[in-house]
Protein 1
Amino acid sequence: MKARKLLMIPGPIEFEPAVLQAMGMATTSHVAPNFIETFGNSLELMRTVWKSPKGQPFIVAGTGTLAMDMAAANLIERGDNVLVISSGYFGKRFKDILDCYGANTTILEAHLGENLSLKIIEQELKIKQYKALTITHVDTSTGIIVDPKPIAKLAKKYNTITIVDGVCSVAGEELQQDEWGLDVVLTASQKAIGVPPGLALLMVSEKAMQVWKNRKTPVPNYYADWNNWLPIMRAYEERKPSYFGTPAVNLVVALETSLKIICNEGMDKRILRHQQLAKAFRASLSALNLTILPKTTAIAANTLTAVYYPEGIDGAAINAKMSESDVIIAGGLLPAIKATYFRIGHMGSVSANDLLAVLGALERALSQLGHPFELGKGLQTFQMELLNTNQ
Ligand code: PMP
């Protein structure tokens, strides 16, 4: 029997074997010609994935939180008004980071399971001049997706820059940075980008780079300061050696491998795969008499699903039984309701087979714990959905 566990949490995810092999190569110098080429290629490939031909990409060792920190440190100055549009835990994190840099932050929080209306956002933008607003494209704590496109339109109307936390969306959800007018779209390597944890990735618009250049005060953070990183990114793109902080060489090699896999699949095809698998999975959960956290499927993410445990059934026991079946899922994250729901990641190289394995294990766990449903109904629903979508 294979002792392999299937990692179905919303990051880190299951990685492609080629990406893991790339991680294991003999580490080269960060100024070796082959690595300069790899770094330069990775920056260029990011523009394709972000759909941002004009953007300035950054690849820095760190996590998604560093990417958020970098956006805040470089674009916000003490006293700047910033609007945080929150649909869960990670919206609040953005507020905490912005507060660290002395921003005058207003947070608009959606009701649990819902999104904020454009009307409420516009009302707030009318009250005062906001320098920036932040959006969590997919909040991993709630599995809710926010459409950044109409919000970016509003932001443009009110002369506000748009910063998107795309940690749980980039390379898994539809995103067109330049077309939609998003100023910063940031992510981390361990999610739909498909590389083990350790890289902070950002794409910054020309407008946001100008906002940064026009700062009146120095960036109050040494590691995050784009003054240190911009020359490095430029040098790698020009295929020239450079140094500020030693890059995570093996992770960058893995990044190039993964970005090539993503671009070979094609962005449109990749996004459609995520949408079709997520839709089929949600239908299957509903067939198992389970309720998802987002109140409508229209605002349910395609990269993960947050699901309530059935009433009267011990959630920890479900997770434990899934784990005994070698399927690893995540518990809740929102502090107020943490123990009432669980999360399943389905992003990156996720396949129908992975989700069939999840549903099989989930059905067995629910059946053993006495949840009323028709055994096989979730699997059957998933199969029917697949047959309808050619996955
Ligand atoms: N934003 C979102 C939406 C996330 O899902 C995460 C990680 N789960 C983060 C930010 C923070 O990323 P990291 O854990 O890599 O710092």
Protein 2
Amino acid sequence: MMALAQELFPICRSITGEGLRATLRAVQRRIPITLQEVPSGTQAFDWTVPDEWNITDAYVRDSAGRRVVDFKVSNLHVVNYSEPVRTRLSLAELKKRLFSLPEHPDWVPYRTSYYDRSWGFCLSQRQLETLQDREYEAVIESTLAPGSLTYGELLLTGETSDEILISCHCCHPSLANDNLSGIALATELARFLGQRRHRYSYRFLFLPGTIGSITWLSRNEQNVSRIRHGLVVACVGDPGPLHYKKSRRGDAEIDRAVVHVLKHSGKEHRVLEFSPYGYDERQYCSPGFDLPVGSLTRTPHGRYAQYHTSADDLSLLRPEALADSLETYLAVLRVLEANLRYRSTNPKGEPQLGKRGLYRSIGGLPDPERQAFAMLWVLNLSDGSNDLLSIAERSGLPFELIHDAATRLTEHRLLRRETSPLDSVR
Ligand code: ZN
């Protein structure tokens, strides 16, 4: 994951253009995503796919010909989606086009102007203060022209056509935690799942933020009912604690699964209620879709000082934080994959476990009492209406223990998997 983040870091991404394509092609070298191109001007609900933006160079030059602000040093120096410009102007006029962060004088802010034609430069407050009252030349060699919006999509087919959606945005230029960490985690998750059997089908989306997910939804409206659970991946590489933002529904299975995993992780974490601000969960959870999609991050957007500044660089990413995030995603998916309903074949009185060797068989386990409790809980609540996660919640026991008990009881024919798919009657 660190290697992919390092490879992608220098690329000047945006919501359209060659930087976005180059990023998706780098992902494509690791997992078999399909690149979809949606022409500029395409209507997507209330939005229109904008003209494609590409940039080769941008700078502010002083009268001595020295580049005092230079896109070649960092792509954050130009306001993303700036229209082309070549002009001479006074410092006072130039300053109206400059953005800095007085509270963090060494950092360069990240600014965009996707839907208003404009141009500008970003620089550190210290750089700004060195500019003398002279004439400057501002040059942005960009193009804004009909082209297309690109996104990457991968479907890993499972035993059922029910889908788990994993979505990440990939439109930010040289920013590491937001959003390269998300791209790296989603890529690794897809690579991992691609090598294994799974009950669910998995749909991975690598999209430019907002316009990408809205465009995808507008082109896939007929298929979204297959999405049973979803997670938006972002900001998963910083050392902060994990945060889960619930879906709009608040009590969807994905919400329960993530909360359960975090609760039993023994690690510091926070659970946040849904809010209509953040990443693409805003679109998946818009009222016309109301999909069960939450967002599992470390420190959420806007809550760390380096957010949307040049200080969100590769040094903010910790391999152990990325690994912990990935392991948490996998733990959530293990719960969803195994969260089935069972029915006791012997519901009248407790079945006699001892004569089946079930007490003896658990003798060697590290925590026999909890194993026995887990079996009693599973036997009692498996009336066909409770899934294993609700049994884990009600018993206070970790899902894995409940699942192990269900597996053992099924082997002894004391349980059978409920075939009526209650999920679809929700
Ligand atoms: Zn962002």
